[in-house]
Every structure is written in C-alpha cells, then in structure tokens.
Amino acid sequence: MIPLAGHTPGLCGVAIRKEAGWILYGSDAVPFDMRVDDVPDRISKRLIGPHVPRIRVFMKAHPEVRVVGAHMNLAFYEKT
C-alpha cells in the first residue's frame, strides 16, 4: 500500500510485484491509464490535482513500473 493524494484523505495505491517489474494501481489518484492516454496536464489537473506531472516524471524514471488508473476495466488493460 502506498499513500497517494486523491479525492479523499487516506487514499492509497497498491504496488504489485510481477516477474517483469511492478504494477502500481493508482486508485483515484490516477483516474486513467497514463501510459496510453495523452491528456494535457491542464485537463488532468482539473480532474485529480497538481500531482499528475510528478506521476509522469516517476513513470519516466521507473519504466519497470506500469502505472494504471482507477476508471478502466480489466479488458482495457489487457489490450494495452
């Protein structure tokens, strides 16, 4: 469990170790799959706050971690 900023106090993400790296489920702190969605920061900030640029910096620095969001179904992630 990883504390994250989001809609409510106490929001957490979940890090899952896989054979080929990690999956970080960002819960409501990451409401879309940032790996495939090219949403401008000005729109993202309205949705989830000012930490979106930091998440993107983290993703570039840690390519072994796949960051996934809250509001997509499993079939979407299996296709990406």
Indicate the percent of residues in helices: 25-40%
Give the number of helices: 3
Low-confidence segments: none
Helices and strands, in order, run as: EEEHHEH
Derived from helix and strand composition plus strand pairing, the structural class reads: alpha+beta
Number of strands: 4
What is the overall pLDDT average? Answer: 75
User: Numbering strands along the chain, what is their spatial order in the largest sheet?
Assistant: 1-2-3-4
Sketch the major β-sheet: 4 strands, mixed
Distance between the termini: 24 Å
Rg calc: 12 Å
SS strand fraction? 15-25%
General form: globular
Account of the protein in words:
This protein has 80 residues and is an alpha+beta fold. Strand 2 and strand 3 form a beta hairpin. The longest helix is centred in the C-terminal third of the chain and has 10 residues.
